[in-house]
Specification:
It contains 10 helices and 5 strands; from the N terminus they run βαβαβαβαβαααααα. It is α/β, with parallel strands linked by helices. It has 2 domains: about 130 residues, Response regulator (Rossmann fold, 3-Layer(aba) Sandwich), CATH 3.40.50; about 70 residues, Arc Repressor Mutant, subunit A, CATH 1.10.10. It has a 5-stranded parallel β-sheet, with helices on both faces.
């Protein structure tokens, strides 16, 4: 079962998400709260598979809550579900550790799919958010030709939202070797982090961008 914590300060959104997830056979809800502080406390207590967070919440916002949940329950994947698609909100949330970033205009089926993907360490980005992130690295001039064949394979895995452990399993490598490849990729492509690497791979069409 995929255990999910829901945190949103809007009661209608909380109820809607609860009703949507309660009917899923493979998902159980461990708690529904209205602010970031309660989300962090509950995550530390219940260690959910996924925390579904809004950004604008009282007591503690979603970005701060994401950071705190990552510290309190490192195995918990954070999925942001919000109305905000501005750069000032998107980039800090992803850098704080959010695996996926969805807008509240996302269809219910896609929200459920994102939660299931997050349970397997795979990220989902709303197309509008993905394109903003692509624009962030649009000035990148370094060609993927500087990468080895193995580094290209690792880059594609990063773009699919996989963490080092999953990449290691998929490519039959040790996690230490994957970590070295990731470091080499960032250095060669002059990128700051894995998020930029993933968007670079999308922009270079190494993996398809899902517009659904």
């Amino acid at each position: 079962m995929i255990s999910v914590l829901i945190a949103d300060d809007h009661p209608i959104v909380r109820q809607g998400m609860q009703m949507l997830l309660e009917v899923q056979d493979d998902i159980e809800i461990v708690g529904v709260v209205e602010d970031g502080g309660k989300a962090v406390a509950l995550a530390e207590k219940t260690r959910p598979t996924v925390a579904l967070l809004d950004l604008n919440m009282p007591d503690m916002d979603g970005i701060s809550a994401t950071q705190a949940i990552q510290q309190a329950s490192p195995e918990t994947q954070v999925v942001i579900l919000t109305s905000h698609h501005e750069d000032a909100m998107v980039f800090p949330a992803i850098k704080a550790g959010a695996l996926s970033y969805l807008l509240k205009s996302t269809s219910p089926d896609d929200v459920v799919a994102a939660i299931r993907a997050a349970a397997h360490g795979e990220s989902r980005l709303h197309p509008r958010v993905a394109r903003r992130l692509m624009d962030e690295v649009s000035g990148q001039r370094v060609s993927v030709d500087v990468l080895t064949t193995r580094e290209l394979e690792v880059l594609k895995e990063i773009a699919q939202g996989n963490d080092n452990k999953r990449i290691a399993a998929n490519l039959s490598l040790s996690e230490k070797t994957v970590k070295t490849h990731v470091s080499n990729i960032l250095g060669k492509l002059q990128l700051g982090d894995r998020t930029q690497a993933a968007i670079y791979a999308l922009k270079s069409r190494l993996v398809p961008l899902d517009d659904n």
